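protein under study:
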Amino acid sequence: MRQFGGSALTDDIAVPKDGPGNDIPVTYVPARNLIFLSLTLGWAEPLGAHDIFIGVNALDYSGYPDCRPEFIASFAETAGLATKDGVEDRPFTFHAPLQHWGKARIAQEAHRLGLDPAMSWSCYDPTSDGRACGLCDSCRLRRAGFAEARVEDRTVYAA
């Protein structure tokens, strides 16, 4: 995605550290989830896999349009029109199990399942030595979710 640019996550654009605004932030990566789902669909069809999962979140997020339920529903409809399996009545089901959960509930569920939160990553602006910045929107949402859930977040933050 770096060759296309257009985002603070893929281009040389500063990541904001002052909280979410009212507009879609510069950390939005153009068509990111559209690309991920398209590639996944292209891989799933020849495998005969008809259940596709994506970890988008529409509650505690930064306002990205490709995390909304409307986008996932629209993509599912497109998949039915754009694939051999879809037009031959072997539909794909798109699952976004985290879409309507807040970060606290996600942290609680990970804890309940015995998953190591240190294996996940949220930071938009990591330091050169690999630590999460602790100040970007994603770090702030993550920290608040873990705190609300009363689950230890073992992420090493720079700030």
